[in-house]
Design goal:
- There is one protein chain.
- The chain has 702 residues and is of the alpha+beta class.
- The chain is built from 31 helices and 16 strands.
- The longest helix is centred in the middle third of the chain and has 27 residues.
- It is rod-shaped and about 140 Å long.
Length: 702
């Protein structure tokens, strides 16, 4: 392999040729130039001719004026003005080489008329007489290199080091190249800098060899000598400065490379990528692309950005959030809006760090500015969350409720359902001070459940000073809404979780009479027969009435709730009009079931669609279709588990208190929400229970 590494572009060949136009290396430069094709071919051939002129001036007899003439003629034929000027002047062994070069450079700058006069003569020249160096065999080229090296100071030592390199004798490599470099051998200077450079050109298999030979101090020592002689080892030298964190020296070195006509812009881009100063990396990358008229630097920066995003994705899969954050920060600094968005999510959700809405907003803003649509959405959400949080913190300062703030941050304070769960949790645990914050926020959003609980707190002095006026305000807001727009309020508790966990009961508000609300349980809380025995009964004497007003009432509500909030209601038991079935005497109950009439009224919006299913009109078989989702009985997990109901059966039939076609049956609502007055057998264990009650809002509880 030759001493000169093959370059991919004509520009790089030109750079290498100019770099080595010293002593015996003119031949090597000429060989490099002569192989250039394309747009730069004329200039390259001209430079090859100049190399041979300079060698003749130095009296290297093996290379002569004839070779130079050949290249100038080739160059002139394809339009090079400097070559045409030299040919017009004539070249001989007695020519003033410096004068010829001056004329050619002037012709390049100002143009010349000599080219046209001599063009015909050049065209007549037989191509067979032109010596074309493009076909020089590899062995001839290698021999030329060897002879050129031997002609330089320290050439023998340099070649000895090359041989030792093949034999992996690095001690001998170091000795020979050091000796050659000290003698002023330019190729040895380049080689010794590369030798000591950490892992760029030398991939030592043994770690100890790396530690022994890779030495940034020696790279700096020899590198400074090399660049002082015009040798381009700036990249290696800058790496050595960077390894020692001597950033000012490295930057100065890159700027010097630019002044000397080398690719200092690229070197500085690389340097600032290592330094993680991405603004400067962008700047020098653009300067390089501007100089070269391409996009090579932009592609390099894109590669670093894509690699960082891939590393972040891998770290996320491994739950390594520290690495994920570091890699996303690199990609974001290199202009990735996706990385900016992901950093915002990490800050918002507390992924690997404490939740920080301000940082999240900053990243979302940056990504949004780059047109990242999802970031615009999250930005609006976070701005709202910060505003709400600030209001909550003011309340927390008054109430001393710091723990709730933390809970809110964990749940995401923009989620109303989560806030309600949090407020209920604290309320039913008796931790009223902590319940105040989420409920206050929900009240601002017109949440009826929050109105009710806050009304209770101020009416009873739960966690706040008792204030009947404030309680009345909350209750007025609660009852101001039309009952046709159904909402739920939490009141009481019951076993609802799969393993019997006690949870707040939720109630639909069906009706309002003065300061009282008619409530119906949102869910089917239990599967229970209307009456244990299979016989004719009415609501007055059925077993379900007894269970609701004793076991259920006492287990689900506190003593104050039973005494002050749940009214002892006058329960009117009207007959079944479809079957003319007697319903028994009226009763007084705190807990009851809806009647057939109430179900038709509230679920059919007062105008039910009655569907006849009997063969004869007087048979009375019918049902009432509803389009009311509240009529469907959602079953609690506890009720499903205890009756071994299929978990996919989300809804259940549920009892009404009115008798069916006879008193051995009770009317019901089916799982689709339709009302069936004919009823089911009273001892059916697969029917659900949805309690109802009248809630008194104005009672003062002391």
């Amino acid at each position: 392999m030759g001493l000169f590494r093959k370059k991919k572009t004509p520009e790089q060949y030109m750079e290498k040729g100019k770099e080595n136009m010293q002593d015996g290396f003119y031949a090597l430069a000429a060989s490099s130039f002569s192989k250039v094709k394309g747009e730069l071919e004329a200039e390259a051939l001209y430079q090859a001719g100049i190399c041979y002129l300079m060698m003749d001036k130095k009296k290297h007899d093996k290379y002569n004026i004839r070779f130079a003439s050949e290249y100038f003629e080739k160059s002139a034929k394809i339009g090079h003005k400097g070559s045409a000027a030299i040919i017009s002047c004539g070249i001989s062994a007695d020519s003033d080489i410096d004068h010829l070069i001056d004329i050619s450079r002037a012709a390049q700058t100002n143009g010349t008329e000599l080219y046209a006069a001599n063009q015909a003569k050049s065209d007549e020249k037989d191509d067979e007489d032109i010596l074309d160096f493009l076909d020089i065999e590899d062995e001839e080229s290698t021999e030329a290199e060897t002879q050129a090296i031997l002609a330089m100071p320290g050439g023998d030592d340099f070649l000895r080091g090359k041989e030792a390199e093949k034999n992996l004798d690095y001690d001998e490599v170091e000795r020979s190249w050091t000796k050659a470099a000290e003698a002023g051998n330019v190729e040895a200077l380049k080689a010794i800098v590369s030798f000591y450079h950490k892992g760029v050109f030398w991939a030592f298999k043994d770690k100890k060899e790396k530690e022994k030979y890779c030495n940034p101090d020696k790279v700096i020592y020899w590198g400074k000598k090399a660049v002082s002689q015009g040798i381009n080892v700036y990249s290696d030298l800058m790496d050595a400065y960077a390894e020692k964190e001597q950033w000012d020296e490295a930057i100065a070195c890159g700027k010097e490379a630019i002044e000397k006509g080398f690719n200092g812009q690229w070197y500085l881009m690389d340097l600032f990528l290592k330094k993680e100063d991405y603004d400067q990396a962008f700047y020098w990358g653009k300067e390089y692309d501007k100089k070269e008229g391409g996009t090579q630097a932009a592609k390099r920066i894109d590669g670093v950005r894509v690699s960082a995003l891939k590393n972040a994705q891998k770290a996320d899969a491994e739950k390594d959030y520290k690495t994920k954050r570091e890699q996303l920060q690199i990609a974001a600094a290199l202009g990735s809006p996706d990385a900016m968005f992901q950093l915002g999510r990490m800050a918002e959700q507390g992924e690997g760090i404490m939740v920080d809405f301000e940082e999240a907003l900053e990243w979302y803003q940056k990504a949004s500015n780059m047109g990242y649509f999802s970031a615009k959405i999250r930005k609006g959400t976070i701005e709202s969350a910060i505003s709400q949080r600030d209001r909550l913190e003011k309340i927390a300062e008054i109430t001393g409720s710091s723990r709730t703030i933390i809970e809110l941050m964990k749940h995401g304070i923009e989620e109303e359902e989560q806030l309600m769960e949090l407020g209920q949790k604290y309320f039913f645990e008796g931790n009223y001070k902590e319940a105040l914050l989420p409920l206050s926020l929900l009240a601002e959003r017109e949440c009826r459940g929050a109105f009710y609980l806050l009304g209770r707190m101020y009416a009873e002095g739960l966690g706040v000073d008792r204030d009947c006026s404030t309680a009345k305000d909350f209750y007025d807001k609660l009852t101001a809404q039309s009952v046709n727009n159904r909402y739920t309020i939490p009141f009481g508790t019951y076993r609802q979780g799969e393993n019997g966990e006690v949870q707040p009961l939720h109630w639909f508000v069906l009706d309002r009479e003065g300061d009282s609300l008619l409530l119906l349980s949102e869910k089917v809380i239990k599967k229970e027969p209307y009456n244990i025995a299979a016989k004719g009964v009415t609501w007055e004497d059925c077993s379900l009435r007894n269970w609701l007003n004793k076991d259920f009432l006492e287990s689900s509500f506190t003593e104050k709730e039973r005494q002050k909030l749940i009214k002892m209601a006058d329960v009117i038991n009207e007959r079944n009009e479809d079957f003319h079935t007697y319903a028994g005497s009226d009763t007084k109950d705190q807990i009851f079931l809806l009647s057939l009439e109430q179900a038709i009224k509230h679920f059919s919006k007062g105008d039910p669609e009655r569907i006849e299913i009997g063969l004869l009109e007087d048979e009375g078989f019918c049902f009432y279709i509803t389009e009311c989702s509240e009529a469907k009985g959602i079953v609690t997990k506890y009720a499903i588990k205890n009756k071994k109901q299929d978990a996919d059966q989300e809804y259940s039939r549920w009892w009404l208190r009115t008798p069916g076609e006879d008193r051995e049956r009770a009317s019901f609502v089916d799982s689709k929400g339709s009302i069936d007055p004919s009823g089911k057998k009273v001892d059916n264990f697969d029917m659900g229970v949805r309690p109802a009650l009248w809630l008194n809002l104005r009672t003062k509880i002391y």
